[in-house]
Amino acid sequence: MRLELLLHFEEPFLIPYNYPRSLYSFLIHGIELGEEGISKRIHTNKKDVKFVASRLLPLGKVKKTEKGLLVEQGRVRLFVGSSAWPVLEALVNGLGSGLGELHIGERRLLEAEIKTAKTPKRLSGQRFRTLSPVSVYHNNPPNGFRSWDLSPVGQPNSPFEDESVVWKELVFRNLREKYLMVHGEPHEGDFGIEVFPRNVRSKMFRIKGVNVRAWEFEFRMWGDEEFLRVAWDMGLGMRNTHGFGMIEVM
């Protein structure tokens, strides 16, 4: 399930270019106001059902600044999805009770309008777009293990012979783990994904002092609808609670 949030913040409101940490803090605090126990589970238990968030999408006139996008009227759109209704319910309740207390940067939330977003009847074969990081640790002698941000189409300086294949394997593994969390049993079916290389772009973010490269791309995926629904509800790839991996129908 997915919610569409229309949020009004104090003006002037800035969407920072490096938004992941502030977005996560806003959402986890909102969930905490609605149900503290759910917030703690999300924050501390990596093997528990979580949520996926989109980027903050500005509404109205926008001006680019050195630090971010200045939204003149302070209004933004945000999508949040989860396979667990209690997570979304806690967020809805928290937004309702947290007006004036919840904030991004130094700007308080003044108003929140919440709607249920439409879910496609069929996902397999559809064309999508997302912004998603996928990272892996690999051996890098003599420096030991280091993190590498994988590209869905590969990179010239990659330590992997076929980086796009490794990327696909990790995306599939990540979705199987989410499926197990949601349904309580392993997924045994197939999964296919095709990335359109012409539209792939990379963006760098800093999260908890670590540089993270995410890739924005268009793609199609195939498989069992129940399995693909997990990608729709929970996100593709990693760091979904920080605003990555929400898939959008083209």
Q: Can you describe what's shown?
A:
With 250 residues, this protein is an alpha+beta fold. It has 2 domains: 2-116, Alpha-Beta Plaits, CATH 3.30.70.1890; 127-249, Alpha-Beta Plaits (2-Layer Sandwich), CATH 3.30.70. The chain contains 5 helices and 15 strands. Strands 1, 3, 4, 7, 8 and 9 form a 6-stranded antiparallel sheet that branches. A 4-stranded antiparallel sheet has the order 13-14-10-15. Strands 2-6-5 form a 3-stranded antiparallel sheet, with no helix packed on it. The two termini are 18 Å apart. 36% of the residues are buried. GO terms for molecular function: hydrolase activity, acting on ester bonds; RNA binding. Keywords: Antiviral defense, RNA-binding. It comes from Thermococcus barossii. Residues 124-249 form the CRISPR associated protein Cas6 C-terminal domain. Pfam families: Cas_Cas6_C.
What's the structural blueprint in terms of helices and strands?
Layout: E1 2-9, E2 13-16, H1 20-34, H2 36-44, E3 52-53, E4 57-58, E5 62-64, E6 68-71, E7 75-81, H3 85-97, E8 103-104, E9 107-116, E10 127-132, E11 135-139, E12 145-149, H4 163-183, E13 191-207, E14 210-223, H5 225-234, E15 248-249
Antiparallel strand pairs: 1-7, 1-9, 2-6, 3-7, 4-7, 5-6, 8-9, 10-14, 10-15, 11-12, 13-14
Helix pairs in contact: 1-2, 1-3, 4-5
